[in-house]
Amino acid sequence: MRKGEMIVAALFMVVSLIVIWECFRLGFGWEPQQGPQAGMVPFYLALLMLGCSAFLFYLGWRREKKEDDNFFINKEGMMEAGRIALMTLIFSVIVVYAGVYFAMLIFSPIFVRWLGKHSWTAVIAFTVIITLTVYFGMEVGLKIPLPRSPLYMQGKFII
Fold it and tell me: What is the pTM for the complete model shown?
């Protein structure tokens, strides 16, 4: 597991550096009268990802190697990774056809209940909080519109 974690952390560091480089090209400051430049949000997210990845790489490097150190500990670990990949694929497809907010309303409860095995109270609370946080953070706070459903574009649906 140690080697796999270090490889993934290194790959995330490379992706972070590529995104940071591209953000320098696009500009990542704040334009008066206009708002954030195109690279502002991705720059700070990539910077955070770079820091977290470097920290995880360091932790993996410092940890002792064990004889039974497998990439996936067992069959259940592999199945969990497969379920997460499947849910991510489904979410990506739903976003294209239904928009971000509707996809979050569909995806979040399924993800939290099926993969997290949380109570329905936690599922509903998480779904409402995460959807409102993304809406107010992106649309209201940063004035960055996210993809919406075709029904919204026709005036038939509010999300």
Answer: 0.52
